[in-house]
Design a protein that fits this description.
This protein is an alpha/beta fold. The chain folds into 2 domains: 3-174 and 303-382, Aminopeptidase, CATH 3.40.630.10; 177-301, Alpha-Beta Plaits (2-Layer Sandwich), CATH 3.30.70.360. Helix content is 35%, strand content 22%. A 6-stranded mixed beta sheet has the order 1-2-6-3-7-14, with helices on both faces. Strands 10-11-9-12 form a 4-stranded antiparallel beta sheet, covered by helices on one side. Helix 1 (3-15) crosses helix 3, helix 3 (102-121) packs parallel to helix 9 (365-382) and helix 5 (200-218) runs antiparallel to helix 6.
Amino acid sequence: MKIDAVVNTLSRLVAFDTVSSNSNIELIQWVADRLAEHGIEAMVQPGSEPGKANLFATIGPAGIPGVMLAGHSDVVPVAGQQWTSDPFTLTARDSRLYGRGSADMKGFIACVLEMAPRFAAAKLVQPVHIALSYNEETNMDGMRVLAKYLAQSPVRPAACVIGEPTSMQVVVANKGAAIFRCRVQGFSVHSSLRDQGVSAVEVAAEIICYVNRLQERLLGAGRNDGFEFPHTSVHVGRIEGGTAHNITARECTFLLEIRALPGVQAAQLLAEIRNHCEQVLLPPLLRISEECAIEFETIADTPGLDETGNQALADAFMPLCGCPDRHRVSFGTEGGILQEIGVPTIVCGPGEIRVAHQPDEYVETAQLEACMEFLESLCQRLETTPCA
């Protein structure tokens, strides 16, 4: 194994500015061309929006359900962050490789691409699939498009490993991730006549207070001690509205995030919040003005990854990466989407989640080496025995 080759591939991947708001086509085509050099045919699947695409390739015997190695090609923005080096130029310092996406999760993709010729040369009894998606960092639309294709295919993958940064520990469960936009429309008057108007900012504040009370109830509604925060969480992370201190705000918008334990539906919690708005908050506002409204828009709602049914898969993969225990994480992944179409999924990849999305994001070369050792062990296993 030559780690220098992995680093060179990672350097090329990082150089593609695939922030979710940008196109990922150039990266996807570059990967497809690279696989083609080794006789590996890749399907480039157009996304549901211009400039976006997925990639899916199979190495090994056709017509047999294989092990899918999946990663997302997009990264989060760098705007407003203080980096000590160019985020889109991989920079080595003290056994760390700095660059946007180095940990989340182009490091894993680089390892998979470097292993592709090894997989292709091996006499696999079970194929390896390579899958790259788009927009994981926003609405996970890419994996939804790919999952729909896989669900309709004659043979879908038997199992999937998503290479999110877990320090090469096997993760069997993660929370769901849902984002909703709430728009409140009030009625503007001069603040000296506030009884004749409706402040959208103040109404939004009442909704947020209700959300906080909901969180208190959720603390007693259920827990899973495998997660760092063992409860479903609700959180308002952004709010904006109003025009001046002396005008009742006509509009206010805020973003509501729900990170639900596996088995808990974010839509049900939203329905409770919506019902409170419609039954309690809105009626007195409409008596002041029929213009008043409270509306919710779903930006993303991704199910959690439930460990039920994942135990056998975890047991098969844990020895391959030297992981003694199963883990659970609170960050969202695409695993729940694949689980919904019947593909057992675990999460395991190089790097640490604590540096993902941060300025000076990095992956340690030792983590890339560990990932390559895992993939080599997987290859050797698949030369004799299926993993799933």
